[in-house]
């Protein structure tokens, strides 16, 4: 922008809040204008961005009361003051205590000063305010507000009851014998009830076991493998049944 001495112009600046900025968090932005032809000539201004928390759609009504500063109290620029408020349940008059129960944001003259979530849980949402002399120019009677955001509370989670699935499982085994080949494969459950395996087209041997016939607990399956010259090998596997 090119301006002659004594001229002025209006510049519109768009400040985009970060994507993950927390609700009711104030971010300060400083804008500096410097002269390109006169070294050392510059001016700056500060602005704040405010991210309001999303209010709940339904719920219990509340009331908010400003504690400090009191109504019609005088606040002096350049001195510190305390902004505080209390929130109550409109139905029961119970005090809303934090944290994790929403935030109160304080406004003076329409400017968001800051917010508090009552982290100490004393039922008072408060914010120390140091009124900077270089940025605060509003004087006289000004609107002072404490805005409670409300909070969405999750209901108690329902208990998950136990459930059982029972059915038939297919036992599968793949065995090889490079010298004489496999003659047969059989399956035994808990050392008894030998079931002959069936050779499938893919080379697997299978047999069915109905787990509904078994008691709850740990069981074993023995796989008997016999080759063409009647040499055999047994391999065991464990599994758990819970039908009830």
List keywords for this structure.
mainly beta, Immunoglobulin-like, 15 strands, 244 residues, four-stranded antiparallel sheet, elongated, three-stranded antiparallel sheet
**Beta-sheet strand percentage?**
35-45%
Tally the helices: what do you get?
Answer: 0
Strand order of the largest sheet: 11-10-14-15
Contiguous runs where pLDDT drops below 50 for at least 5 residues: 157-168
Largest sheet features? 4 strands, antiparallel
CATH class of one domain, please?
Mainly Beta
Mean pLDDT: 76
- The radius of gyration is 38 Å
How much helix is in the residues? under 10%
Order of helices and strands: EEEEEEEEEEEEEEE
Principal-axes geometry comes out as elongated
Compute the separation of the termini in Å: 81 Å
Structural category is: mainly beta
At CATH level 3, the topology of one domain is Immunoglobulin-like
CATH architecture heading of one domain: Sandwich
Record field, number of beta strands: 15
Characterise this structure.
InterPro entries: Ig-like_fold (IPR013783). The chain is mainly beta and 244 residues long. Among the domains are: 56-148, Immunoglobulin-like (Sandwich); 168-241, Immunoglobulin-like. Helices cover 0% and strands 43% of the residues. It is built from no helices and 15 strands. The strands form five sheets. Strands 11-10-14-15 form a four-stranded antiparallel sheet, with no helix packed on it. A three-stranded antiparallel sheet has the order 3-4-7, with no helix packed on it. The chain is elongated, with a radius of gyration of 38 Å. Mean pLDDT is 76; it is low at 157-168.
